[in-house]
Design brief:
With about 525 residues, this protein is mainly alpha-helical. It is built from 21 helices and no strands. The protein has helices at about 5-15, 30-55, 60-65, 75-85, 90-95, 100-120, 125-150, 155-185, 190-195, 195-210, 220-225, 230-245, 255-280, 295-325, 330-355, 360-375, 390-405, 405-415, 420-460, 465-470, 485-515.
Amino acid sequence: MTSDDIELQTHTSMRNVSDESVESAKHRAPLLHYLSLILAAAIFVFIAGYDFTASAAALPIIGIRFSKLSTVNWVVVAYMIPFASLMPSVNKLAAVCGYRVALAVFVLLHIAGSVMSGATQGMPLLLAGRVIAGLGASGSTIISLTAVEETGSKGQRMFGLRILLVTWLVGSVIGLAAGGCLAKWSSWRWIFYFDIPFVVVALALSIFAIRIPKHEDSKLQMLKSIDALGTMFVAGSVVTLALALNYGGNLFKWSSGVVITLLILSVFLFIVFVFIEVKLASEPIMPSSMFKTRTSTALLAIQPFVGIVTFAPIVYLIMWYDAVKSQSSEATCVRILAVTLFALVVALVVEIVISIFKRCQPLVHISVPFMTLGCGLLIILNENTNRNVPVAFMALLGVGIGLSFQPHFIMIHGASVAKTMTSVVAAVLFLRILGAAVGIALFNAVLQNNLVTKLAAVVLQHPLYAVYILNSVDNSDVMRLPRVPQSVRSAVVDANAQGFRSIFIACTAFAAVAIPLLVFVGRRQR
């Protein structure tokens, strides 16, 4: 299969985003029904995009509130792992118990998790709430995508999927803005309460609008096809790896039994997961049909790196502004908005370009280099950098992110034999978000290990302020106390700046690893 063949299949996939064997999906849906469905689905997808960036915006405030800055990244990671892990199984679960019933259960989980997160008085309950909310958001997002892809004419389905893509990015933009403002002017708790009225309205609309055709297989057959073991083992592997990275060099030495055990367990669980997918699962999390060509395989291999470079810089630049620039959450999020705004604008432009030229391979080839460039420029940041300089770097990163959405989805769909675009979206988000979760945990380990070394040197220089210096790891407000001299503050800020630089170096390295894989995108297949 040549590059032109893949582009032809890509063009075909743009016109055929649903399984044409579903006869009822070929007819144009009534306008009121269609608009209700699009609105409901858009709300669910909007909230999914909002949740990540809004919670990321409040990380410094939450970390200071509970004196847990060194581990506050888990507020994001605890949401991402269940969100990604459940995605491939949502449709099968919904087919067993009914899409409306399943959606109601997922919405209730989302509400329960949001209430727990907002009402918590400690980090453990907050993390539990984020896990539950992640499960709920995962289910409602995939069911929404499926409902849109199974309803109406080809034109309606394609238009609906485009709307949902843009809505995800809009949710990310508003999440940053709302998260910063709510944390500054009201309370970080309202970031989580914000979800509740929206998902309730979306559920009410969905009861009327969702009409997904029933599967021909029996409920027992659908239940057996769910890869529950694979889901549990891959989630367990990611969680144990993230815990090992979080504990290593922080709570325990890297050579400690706890860290080594977690690392070995993570590798073991992943090996078992691969065995289950290859030998046991009747319908694996990642269907073999997605790996039929070199192009689709290369693009899928790229997705974890894309996830890392999409999410990690947002999280750690927000924390950089707090630790290095002592900037308010509101002002920080206004500057970070550059990445999501540029991603949104570029995604809209890309939509027009693809519709005119019917090609997306060149866009795929420049997406990762743009992300690498934007991330790489963050390496030059230090305590003396003007606060507005990172805005330009994040804008470049946003261009790469905007290029990595629809072109990647369409190329994978066109180069593989995946039946629906929803299955492609679920697979890509599964890889991106799990990759991001591991990346965020890894970079936190890099940061904490650097801080331990740098702050130890600061303590030797200023032994009288050792308690303040060491406590600043979990509560940066300690350094703003009047009794702490400016010389100590400057030394701690410099240590933090060097720690964050190590994160940006690591993030750039991950982005650069993905670039050689682009060589295989669109090349002649074996």
